[in-house]
Design brief:
3 domains; 5 strands; two-stranded antiparallel sheet; about 325 residues; 9 helices
């Protein structure tokens, strides 16, 4: 027997007469049919989104995809700029010539080339993966980006814990650059930029230039007992012409006489003071860069989940057909 509900709320058993007080125009809907329809509807409602929710989800995914594409495109341009700068520096110095190949491994421009190449390849992978919704490319992009974020966080922790050793490393690097001032154009450029920008001379003080074989007071030649022009208080004659000899003989002067010609303080102290004065800005830049990378990682993960969901829906559709 199949039990039905009458219009007036009376239970009806198919095959039996209607009760006397039942309405003759009642409509019967079988209980089995109701339960069957509700089960089908429940299963379908779990599988498919409502039209409005589906449109909202598609719009959100569309925006996230093109935010990911735009950010990767911006960093691709930055990577290409770094790569171009590094290659330009190597070519302008003729670093690939036969006599300079031996010192190519220590050329600072190689760092720009390496970072630019890695950044460009990584961001191009993200761009193509976002536009094409390619699961493999987005997975590679997310794994590499996660590794880079973890490496940066680890480097920041190590740098904070080894501040003393970093100071010793900077001092050793500065003295090495000073000793190779005339022989290495890169070292010379970096040293001049630091001394000019921070208005300093030497590592600890201006007398550190004794380490240079050309500026040492025991060296022959006109550069004996001298310092580079980047140490001078006013290296420009009449405000226009760079006077490369303004530091000649400065190491022979006492501090009172030398202070009117050159900067007396060393660059290590100036670097330390500059970091302390701009610690807020440095922290903000670090946090923003890490934040951008983490947000990019979250967006990539969302797109990967969406691609997997679409594939699962496509497989279910094939099974039903």
């Amino acid at each position: 027997m199949k039990k039905c509900f009458g219009w007036g709320g009376h239970d009806i058993v198919i095959g039996r007469a209607l009760p006397p007080n039942a309405r003759p125009y009642c409509v019967c809907v079988c209980t089995e049919k109701i339960h069957s329809s509700s089960r089908e509807y429940g299963s379908s409602s779990r599988t498919f989104l409502s039209p409005r929710s589906s449109r909202t989800s598609r719009l959100t995914d569309y925006l996230l995809k093109y935010v990911l594409f735009s950010s990767n495109l911006l960093f691709t341009a930055l990577g290409l700029a770094m790569l171009g700068l590094g290659l330009w520096g190597l070519l302008s110095k003729e670093s690939f010539s036969q006599e300079k190949l031996g010192s190519l491994g220590t050329d600072p421009m190689l760092l720009f080339v390496f970072l630019g190449l890695v950044l460009t390849l990584l961001c191009v992978t993200g761009c193509v993966g976002a536009v094409r919704e390619n699961y493999c490319l987005l997975r590679i992009f997310s794994v590499v980006l996660l590794a880079l974020v973890a490496a940066q966080v680890l480097a920041a922790i190590v740098a904070y814990g080894l501040q003393g050793r970093i100071a010793d490393f900077l001092r050793t690097g500065m003295l090495t650059a000073m000793a190779r001032y005339q022989d290495d154009l890169d070292m010379r450029f970096i040293t001049d930029e630091i001394q000019t920008g921070l208005q300093c001379c030497g590592a600890e003080n201006y007398r550190d230039w004794q380490i240079n074989s050309y500026f040492n007071c025991s060296a022959p030649g006109v550069q004996s007992c001298s310092v580079p022009a980047s140490c001078c208080v006013d290296p420009l004659e009449n405000g226009t012409v760079w006077n490369s000899q303004c530091g000649f003989g400065a190491l022979q002067l006492d501090e009172f006489s030398a202070q009117s010609v050159i900067f007396l303080g060393g660059c290590l102290g100036s670097i330390s003071r500059w970091i302390q004065q701009h610690s807020g800005l440095i922290s903000t830049v670090v946090v923003v860069l890490l934040g951008v990378q983490i947000i990019t990682l979250v967006i990539t993960t969302r797109l990967l989940d969406r691609i997997q969901w679409n594939r699962a829906q496509a497989r279910q559709g094939l099974v039903r057909t």
